[in-house]
Amino acid sequence: MNIDTFRDYCLSKKGVTEGLPFGPDTLVFKVMGKIFALASLDEVPLRANLKCDPGRAVELREEHEDSILPGYHMNKKHWNTVVLDGRLDPKLVFELIDHSYDLVVESLTQKLQKELNDL
């Protein structure tokens, strides 16, 4: 998966913004101001950090040990680094983006969830 596909999918989700708050090499995606995905633009192959349920994170790392790693520079209990070098099925990558987005949306205050629903 390339950065354009990853970016377009993230931006297709409701309430998502993108930015470069950590410098020009890390593209950050937020829903209602909270990060759910980061992509390292200077990495070859492309790598992305995605939030993940802790139990599922461990299972994914064991099942895809070369492609799904503990989150680089993140809380390794809650974040995975996904290597986007073509070895993972794009459907799985989209599912992991959805999962990360959903986890962050669930953690939003009721007020922010309502604002998101009203968009």
From TrEMBL:
Pfam families: YjbR. It comes from Christiangramia fulva. The lineage of its organism: Bacteria, Pseudomonadati, Bacteroidota, Flavobacteriia, Flavobacteriales. Signal peptide: none annotated. This is MmcQ-like protein. It comes from the Bacteria.
